[in-house]
Every structure is written in C-alpha cells, then in structure tokens.
Amino acid sequence: MSQGIGAAVKRKEDKRFTTGKGKYTDDIRMENQAYAAFVRSPHAHARVNSIDTSAAEAMDGVIAILNGAELTGDGIGNIICGWAITSKDGSPMNMGAWSALATEKTRYVGDAVAIVIAETNAQARAAAEAVDIDYEELPVAASLAAALSDGAPQIHENAPGNIVYDWEIGENEATEAALAGAAHITKMDITNNRLSPNPMEPRSAVAIYDDAEDHYTLYTTSQNPHVARLVLSAFYNVAPEHKLRVIAPDVGGGFGSKIYIYPEEIACLWASMKTNRSVKWTSDRTEAFLTDAHGRDHVTKARMGFDQDGRIVGFKVSTKANFGAYMSLFSSAVPTYLYATLLSGTYNIPNIYCEVLGVYTNTVPVDAYRGAGRPEASYLVERMIETAAREMGKDPADLRNINFIREFPHQTPVIMNYDSGDFEGNMRQAMVAADWAGFGARKAESAMRGKLRGIGMSCYIEACGIAPSAAVGSLGAGVGLWESAEVRMNPVGTIEVLTGSHSHGQGHETTFAQVVADRFGVPIDTVQIVHGDTDKVQFGMGTYGSRSGPVGMSAIVKALDKLEVKIRKLAAHLLEASEADIVIEDGQVKVDGTNKVLAWHEVGLAAYTGHNLPEGMEPGLKEGAFYDPLNFTFPMGCFICEVEVDPQTGKTEILKFVASDDFGTIINPMIVDGQVHGGIAQGVGQAMLEEVRYSEDGQQLSASYMDYAMPRADDLPDFDVLHHSTPCTTNPLGMKGCGEAGAIGTPPAVINAITDAIGNNDLSMPATPAKVWAALNSATIAAE
Amino acid sequence: MHSTNYHAATTAAEAASLLSSAEDGALLAGGQTLLPTMKARLAAPSDLIDISRAEELRGISVTDGTAIIGAMTTHAEVAGHAELRSAFPALCDLAGRIGDPAVRHRGTIGGSLANNDPAACYPAAVLGTGATISTNKRDIAADDYFEGMFATALDAGEVITSITFPIPDAANYQKFAQPASRFALVGVFVAKSADRVRVAVTGASEEGVFRWTNAETSLSSDFTADAIGGLSVSSQGMISDLHGDGSYRANLVQVLTARAVAAAS
Prior knowledge:
The complex is a heterodimer. Chain A is of the alpha+beta class. Chain A has three domains: 15-138 and 200-253 and 258-291, Aldehyde Oxidoreductase, domain 3, CATH 3.90.1170; 298-466 and 631-783, Aldehyde Oxidoreductase, domain 4 (2-Layer Sandwich), CATH 3.30.365; 482-627, Aldehyde oxidase/xanthine dehydrogenase, molybdopterin binding domain (Aldehyde Oxidoreductase, domain 4, 2-Layer Sandwich). Helix content of chain A is 29%, strand content 23%. Chain A has 20 helices and 28 strands. In chain A, helix 10 (374-392) runs parallel beside helix 19 (741-758) and helix 18 crosses helix 19 (741-758). Chain B has three domains: 5-50, Uridine Diphospho-n-acetylenolpyruvylglucosamine Reductase, domain 2; 58-166, Uridine Diphospho-n-acetylenolpyruvylglucosamine Reductase, domain 3, CATH 3.30.465.10; 170-263, Enolase-like, domain 1 (2-Layer Sandwich). Chain B has helices at residues 12-21, 34-39, 75-79, 82-87, 89-96, 101-106, 109-115, 122-129, 142-145, 213-221, 226-229, 246-263; strands at 5-8, 25-28, 47-50, 60-63, 66-70, 132-135, 139-141, 160-166, 170-177, 184-192, 197-202, 210-211. In chain B, the strands form three sheets. Chain B has a five-stranded antiparallel sheet. A four-stranded antiparallel sheet of chain B has the order 9-10-11-12, sandwiched between helices. The longest helix of chain B is centred in the last third of the chain and has 18 residues, at 246-263. The model of chain B has no long low-confidence stretch (mean pLDDT 96). The A-B interface holds A 122, 125-126, 129, 286, 648-651, 689, 691, 693, 701-702, 704-710, 768-770, 773-774 and B 1-3, 40-41, 176, 179-181, 183, 185, 242-245, 248, 251-252, 255.
C-alpha cells in the first residue's frame, strides 16, 4: 500500500506553497475594500482621558475612526476566557474586563484604543498616528515580581493583588509527609522564559459586511474557524451564527497563537458594518510582537524527595504564572490542567502537590504556545531529576530508569491515566544512537582543544488529543473537545473529506488523504480534504494540542466505517454476493474467491443513479461522524543533546541531537519527522535564543528580530530522529500526536547538557553566550 | 512607510545637488538600514536620493599596497573580488560575513560608513587599517572620521565617494555575532604593517568603534596572541544590553583580539 498509512508520500499542498500560489487572508481582495489601522497605547498602564480624532478625520482617505465607547455602545461583548478555573477556596477566577477597544484604561503597550478605517493602508496608518489621545500614565507592574509586590498597582479592580486565581491539585499533606521522610531532597527555583510565537504569516483579517443580507463574512488567520464563529456570535454579539461565515484559508503557521479571537477581528467585523465597507487589517511584525499572545512565563519553586534507593517519594511544586493584562481564550487552562497534570513525567511518583498562582501584569496576554503547559512541566521535571542525579552522585539514566512507569494503564496522582509506552526502550534506543557510553572519550578530546563538552537527556511525556468532552467539562472547559468529519464519495468515485481540523502547515491534505487511501486503496490524488470554512464544513473544534491526528483523524475513521458499511451492502447487492465476502482493495470492490469485481467509480455511480439499490437504501454516499476521545493520548520520548562550550566566549554549539519518540501509529514518517525537526528548533530557540524582555515600565525591549533571536539553520545540528512506537490504546488508529513533542522535550535536554559542560547548574533559559560565560565565571570563582 | 519622493542620481555631484534642494532629503545607498527604519515609520525623509546606481561610485581597484573601493560597492562585490582577496583577504572575509546574502547584495561600504552603526563591521576595518574616506569635498583620515554612535565627520550634503585602504602585511577580523541581529556583539580588526600595528574594536563601546591602543603598543613589539594575555579592557563605557553586559563585552574584546592576532595572515 504505497500511499496508505506509514507511507512517506510527498505533501500534496506543497506545490502551491512552494510556488507562491497559496491563498492567505492577506491575498483576499474585495472590490469595496478599505483598510484598518489601530491606534495603540504607548503606555503599559494608563487612563484614557480623552480621544481627539479631529485632525485625523480631516486627513486624506479617512472613512471613519471608531472607539471603545461606540463599540460597547453597540453591544459588542467583552473578550472571554473559555475555561473557568476555581481557586483553592472555591471562588471563581477573577476575570478582568477586556474590551476589543479599550474604554477607560489601557493595560499593556499595544492595547488597542481606536480603529481607523481609510481607503488605503498608508492613509489608515498615517491617520492612526494623528489621533490625539490624552493619557494619564499609571504605575506599571510589568513582571510577576512587580505585580505581586506590596503596593503593586491594581490592574483590574476586581482582581485584588492582581491575582487571577490561586489553584491547587494533588494532596499537600501527603506530599509534605513523603518529603519529610525522604532520604534526599532536591530543591530548585526554575524560570520558564517568556516567548513570542512568531508564525511566518502574521495575523490578518478581512471583514465583509453585506447590508442586503445583514450577513458577515470573516476571512481570518485562525486555527479553529468554527470556534471563532461561535465566540464572535455567542459572546461578542457580532451576528448570530447563521449570519456569520468564518473562513480560515491557507494559514502560515500558528503554534497556538491563532487559536484565539483577538480584538482586531472583532473590531474589523464591527467596523465593516459601521462603514458598510469590507475592512482589511494585516499585522506587521512589530504589531505581532506587541499583540500576539505570548507563551510560557512561569516562576516555580519545587522540591523532589527520594528514598535511599533513589525512588521518588514526593514532588511539591509552587508556580506563579504570568497571564499578562487580560485572560486570553485558553490561557487559564495552560498553567493548570495542561501543566500540573503532567508533573508525574514518565515516573512513578506516589505523591504530587502543585499550587499555581495566576497573575495579571501590564504585558501582552499569555496563552497556549506550542506545547502549552507541557513544556513547562517537562522542563521542571527533567531539570529536577537530572539535578537530583548529580546531587546524589547517580547516573542520570539509571536514576530515571528505576523511576520509570512500566505498567499500563497507569494512574498518576494528578488526573492523567497513561495508556501505553515503553519508557526504558525509548531511552535505551536514544542512548545507543547518541553513543552515550562513548561520551567520556569525546569530552576528553574536547578538553584537549580547550573546549567543555556536556551531555544531557530528557525523558519527556506530554498529553495530546485534547480531550474527552465530559472530562474537560467537569474541569471547567466551556466547550467539548471532540472533532467532526464528513466523507463524501462522489458519483465518479472521488472522495471529499470535510474535517473540523484545520491545517496551517501540518500537511492534513496529504495525511488525511492517506487514511482514506489506506482504507479503500484509492490514490490520494482522488481524495480532497476540505477544511477551514464554516459554510462548507460541519461544526468542528479545530487544530491545537496535537489533536488533528488522534481526534481529527479518528472522526474521519468513524465516518469511513459508516461509508464502508454502505459500500459493502451496495456492492453485495450489485454483485449478488454475501456482504461477508466483499473485499475492498486497490480501489476495487471484489467478491472474495471469485472474479466478480466492481470498479470504484461503478460503486459511486450506482449509489447516485439509484437505479438498483438494496431494499430501503437511500441513494448517495455520504457519512458523517463526531468523535469524542476516550482519553488524552501520551506521546513520550527520550531526547539526548551533546554540546561543546567555548569557555572564553560562552558560545555553545550543539554537536549532536538524538530524538527517540513514541507517537504511536505514524501516518506519514516524513511529515512526522518534519514536525519533530521544527519542534526541536523551537525548543532550542527557547533553551538558547528566545526571550521576550520588558522594561520595568512595560515597554517590550525585544520587539524586533534585531533583538528577539529566532533559531536559524546554523544554530542547529543535523537531527537524529528515531521512533519507538507503542500504539495508543484509546483511539482507532493508535495515534498519539507529534506536533509539539519537539518543543516539549528539547529545552531540558539542552540545558542539562550545557550545565553538565560548564559544571554550574545555576543557568536559566535562554542560555545565551553571555549567560553561559557568566555562569562559568561564577562557577570558577566558587571553585576558587 | 510615509510617502517620499524618489530620485536616482548618476553621479556624486548630482546627488549632492539633489540633496541640497530637498526639504528633508536622505541619501539612499543599499538601503539596508534606512529602508527598514522607514518601514517602521521611524524615519520619514521627504526625498530619497538613490546613489546606488552611480557608476563612478562603484568598483574595486587594487594597486601596489593600496585598495580603493568605490562607496557604492556592495559587500558581496568586496567579498567576491579575487584580486582583493589575494591582496587583502581579511577585508573580503569581513564583507562576506555581514548580514545575509540579501543584505550583502544590496548593502554598500559607503552606506555602512555613513551610518556608522556602533555594531557595524566595516568601521573596524577602516579604523583598523587607518584608511582614508574620500568625499565629494575632501579626504578624511579614519582617525578623524568616526565621532561616536551613528555620528561621523561628514557634513550635511557631503557624499562619500571611495575608501582607500593601505593593504597591511597581515590582518584578521574576528566577529562574535549578536545572536538575534547577527551584527557584531564585538568585532576586532587587527592589522600589522611594517611600521605599526592597529587594533580597532566595533560593537563594544558606547562611543562606537575605537582603537585599543594598549594592545597596539604591546603587539607592536611582540605580534603574538600571548602579548594580549596580560592586557584587559575596562568594562567602563562598554555597551550593556539584552545580549551582554559591559564586562562580557570587555572579555570578548580581549579574547577576540588574541584570536585575531593568532589568525592574522
């Protein structure tokens, strides 16, 4: 089966992407199109005393300048957070009001205050600069420490002390008791650095109001157009769902940042109605830094206790999570149910307790970014166990190995129930590939050249395939997290798959077609994947959390099951055979053991002509399914990183990087390896290069590529990507998901390697040359 | 970008004339700094006078002991010039590591020197060799040209026409790239001639490119990396930013100077 499951076929979509024929939101051009520009707060925290638009309104091409008072006056609702988290004391989280256009106060630099609509983009931008706003600057809290300090400025009136929530999971007393009896305790303070997502395509929106039909269309850079339509309709009151069509055409990367419905899309839709013009807005890179939701930004204190043999007895974690100025759509779940539930890692830990303090600051909202909570958990667990091994003088692989979970299903103390895996098998495979045993000789060779060599591993686990709807509902989610599919076989035998998943680089047009090819033996070129348009596709939940495989493809499988039943029944009738004897292979329908056969198109034609159907069968071939997962899936793996540090400059070179992953069933190994490569690159970015930095007064200091260091090809080695798969037991294809693993498993492997090289464990991400050099020098001073 | 009037000048004299008649004009060389700045709406010249196509400002000539490079010669042209590479390989290496290929095919030596970014590479070579900057009005010695971050001895309306490098007996440029911009976090150009050694440092100082005279003195009597070993640079006045503090940059000045001496050929 050359094009089915497991075949490394080339991506069907790449011809248009690599020849400039992709159609992105900014490529949409309407005849009556006007352009939007946003007037943004230059202050991180300020009262808006007045907005004077008189000079701007007189400028060439200006159509309208609209503000927050008009927006709320028209009944446009505040931006919501979709997952309700309950604090330790039973109180709901403190939601600060977030209007798409700020009314009384601005709370971060870039907070939108007004929208300018003009005939050209240049005119809109020029007019936006001419809007005169009288701001009264207020004290700023631009960091966790500042927001939690005594006398910190109050960012939202209804969030005393800038606290969003004070949440906990696990058993505190039992964990404390376990730690009290521990033979060794490893304590660490860990910071997870703040990141900017930087998809290649910036956010964009084209809002089209049709006054004759009172109907809205929104082209937008979305990972989940149906969720966008639901939220825009039900909460922001833009239009009822049947009067609003959301289209996410080709989308150039998301990494989570395009899950959310941002102020700009809301304001453009509303402004389109106000001006009766189509309104286009496309973010430039500066706006992307200033307004795309950031990721990570945790500060954590943790203690891990071990018994005499090195077995973990308890793990206690206290985390402060920076949410920025407002609670973005999924933000509340990230440092709680997507983070603390993974604190058991790949280890058998009998007692875990974690408390999380969510905090408002005068910074851009923080939400899910590739990995979303799991990179933070993985970094913490894998830095802790590596450090513990060093403190106890144990081999880090041995210490991991005696703590690995070996029996499945395994219930952790923090909700998750792991279904499958071979943790030691993955680690051993990675160690062989990395020549772990030969490291000592290589280190000695580096030393002869005056270089410091280090090696580090991480045995991550994460949770994908979000998620059983009833389970997440009981934990506060506002939506169910199933997925939908519809499979249509046409009269000529070609097949259309309409999926609620959304591809923004993942290659669904290829992999989803492979699932169909695998089932029927038809060529993938005869299978069309349709997605991203609420008028074409039934309601779906979209793509994030590596869910398109385990959840999205499972829905397709369910629909294919139904379609196959009908095809068998029809074929049995036409071939005058028993259904049990019908065989579907190589794009033909045959009767087993005979030469009776129907060509694929003959099946389609028979179904649609309806001339000769079995008693009671409806014409046509179209089946739909909604798949609600039974459990999360648990991709896991072992990453090993080997580095060499130049002690004179602190520059670190990654010499070797081995990734051995368990993704369960793999549909297309080439695409999976591509996901791993990209994930590792982003993980190396977090570990060594990337960090969003703010000044004390809330100005973003790293808001361009001159200061925000994205990973480039020459920052990275040739990756050694391996697989050691155990099928997932809870979905039909046995898939676990692969989209985020690289970003989750990489940072601890890199930092474990660098700290091994320099002999100083006190090193925070990103490990820039300057920081590595400083850590080396402080280690040298301490040694002297 | 704000709207601007574009003019293409074919000679330095025409450029100077256009510049003097513009309300708030700016010379456009390769545009690798000016155009991004304009796109970010941080600069809004009324007129852009493009001198990149002025033939008299382009080209490389290597004569006995001297290399003359037209101001509008691109980094890629300098990097790829065979005759220059055999006479003065350190300069070709420097040019070949500025920015990325797109930058190197647009950016020019004259544009770089007129802008005098404190982290640019060319100022280190010009100061490190004691080159001469020729303009439409005069010749300016490198020691008199650089006047601090983004500041030069150029008068308003003055157009750089060429740069004359005395070709050293041995030279090397060591660049430690800032991880994001890939500009020099610190760059050190060392040049040894029969009668002198010069060491110029870019990227490090709040005053822009400077000569490390203590190192020059030591190296003049002993041109080995060991001669740098006992020296150190004060972190006072060194740039401190997201990518490294003053003490880190001071360390890099010392380390890179030693490496440049060791590598000088």
